[in-house]
Amino acid sequence: MRNTFYYLITFSLLLFWSSCRNNLEFQTLERDLNFSKDTVYLDTIFTNIGSSTYTLKVYNNSQTNISIPKIKLQNGQNSKYRLNVDGMTGDIPLSGNEFSNVELLAKDSMYIFIETTVDIEDLVNNETQFLYTDAIEFGQINPQKVELITLVKDAVFIYPQQITTSDGSLETQTLFFDLDGDGVQDESNLKGRFLQADELNFTNEKPYVIYGYAAVPEGEILEIDPGSRLHFHSNSGLLVTNNASIHANGALSLDSDLLENEIIFEGNRLEPGFEDIPGQWQTIWLFNGSTNNKFNYSTIKNSTVGILSDGNQDNDNKLEITNTQIYNSSNFGILGRATNIKAENLAINKSGQSSFAATFGGNYDIIHATIANYWNYSFRQFPALLLNNFTLDEEQNLIPNDLISANFTNCIIYGNDNPELLLDNIVQANFNFNFKNCLLLFNDYGNIFSGPYYDFNDLMLYENILFNSSPEFLNPSQNRLQIPTSSPAAGAGINLGNLNTDITGSQRSYPADLGAYNAIEFEN
Question: 168 and 63, same structural domain?
Answer without folding.
Answer: no
